[in-house]
Specification:
The chain has 168 residues and is α+β, with helices and mostly antiparallel strands. Helix content is 32%, strand content 19%. It has a single domain, classed as Nucleoside diphosphate kinase-like domain (Alpha-Beta Plaits), CATH 3.30.70.141. The termini are far apart. Bound molecules: 2'-deoxyadenosine-5'-diphosphate (DAT) and magnesium ion.
Length: 168
């Protein structure tokens, strides 16, 4: 298996429960390289794009509330890109099954996840499930200059009337 990149998101419950360090320690067991990392306040639009494949599911509205942080009063997630041999499967293995009740108890989701009374799986982390999903998600969450590697082809662009915040 060649090198792969995969997107990990530590979801709002992970940050709210101060699990960031534990999760990063668990993921370091993979010996994969972190090539991008940031704290993100997830907009409605980003949430919808991220979970577009689930928009017809009964739990979708709750899922959007969850990832945007409205469920936990916590407007942060941590987004990371892990890179290396067999990255997708290695990260999924440590994350555990989608349903926290079915997840291996020593996996992140098995140890820290739960099922809400609404039925939503509150499962602490997101991990890309295949190479095409990983590419789509990484391009959705990260700009090329936020990644310490040339993962995918880029093009140069100059923006007219481009406004951005700088330090005063
Ligand atoms: P995964 O996150 O393991 O890739 P997914 O992409 O199918 O799983 O679903 C995204 C998230 O939606 C998942 O992490 C938790 C929630 N979810 C999925 N299936 C669910 C279900 N049957 N009931 C409640 N929540 C669910
Ligand atoms: Mg998925």
């Amino acid at each position: 298996m060649t090198n792969q990149a995969t997107l990990v998101i530590i979801k709002p419950d992970g940050l709210k429960k101060s699990l960031t360090g534990n999760i990063l320690s668990r993921l370091s067991e993979t010996k994969l390289k972190i090539i991008g990392a940031k704290i993100v306040s997830v907009s409605e639009k980003l949430a919808q794009q991220h979970y577009r494949h689930l928009k017809d599911k009964p739990f979708y509205p709750e899922l959007i509330k969850y990832i945007t942080g409205r469920l936990h009063g916590e407007n942060r997630v941590m987004a990371l890109i892990y890179y290396g041999k067999d990255a997708i499967a290695k990260v999924r293995q440590i994350s555990g099954a989608t349903n926290p009740e079915e997840a291996d108890p020593v996996s992140v989701r098995g140890a820290y996840g739960r099922i809400l009374t609404t039925g939503l799986y509150e499962n602490v982390v997101h991990a890309s499930s295949d190479p095409s999903e990983a590419e789509r998600e990484i391009k959705l969450w990260f700009n090329p200059d936020e990644i310490v590697s040339d993962l995918y082809p880029v093009k140069q662009t100059s923006l007219k009337n481009y406004r951005k915040k700088v330090w005063k």
